[in-house]
Amino acid sequence: MPPNPKSPEKVYFIVGKIVATTGRWFLILLTYVIIFQIGSMEGSLLERLSRIQLPRIKIQHPSILTTSSQKVALDQIELSYHTIRVGVFRDRGLADSLRSKLHAARIKSHVLSYRNHYYVCIGKYDSIKKAQTTLKKVKERGFPSASLILAKI
Fold it and tell me: Are 80 and 35 in the same domain?
């Protein structure tokens, strides 16, 4: 027996076909617009692609030790997490070297800059227990100078 033309399954099937077809045509139209934009430019293909203006999204990460315009004294900042400090250096190259060693040991780290010093740190922890557990693992992996920084509000 053929399906009833007014059955919900038939309606859903028709709506799905319409949505799929509309989306397909929109994608084709968008592709042609991009190709037309690239084709109307002068120069090699790579030059054309480099001149296409893409929207830039600026993501601002909360900075612990610096603001966008100036450095801030550490006593003016209220910190609300614990972190593990693995090393402190005056030379950025040495800090990056230690960070590379941590990366080779499969430990994620970051470098913070404050008053001409570079701090190599691991993680941001809300719980001191999690920070202590990670500190123990970091020391076991060959970084005995690591220490826990208790950052209070």
Answer: no
Which one has a higher pLDDT value, 17 or 71?
A: 17
Residues of the domain holding 139? 74-150
Tell me: do 82 and 131 sit in the same domain.
Answer: yes
CA atoms of 77 and 61, how far apart (whole Å): 15
Beta bridge partners of 21: none
d(CA 88, CA 111): 9
Amino acid at 105: A
Q: Are 134 and 82 in contact (CB under 8 A)?
A: no
Distance CA 121, CA 83 (A): 7
Q: Which residue, chain included where needed, has tokens 């993501």?
A: 59
- The confidence band for 153, taking pLDDT boundaries of 50, 70 and 90, is very low
141 to 33, 38, 96, 106, 113: CA distances (angstroms): 54, 52, 18, 10, 25
Number of domains in the chain: 2
Residue 14 lies in a domain: yes
How far apart CA 131 and CA 13 sit, in angstroms, is: 54
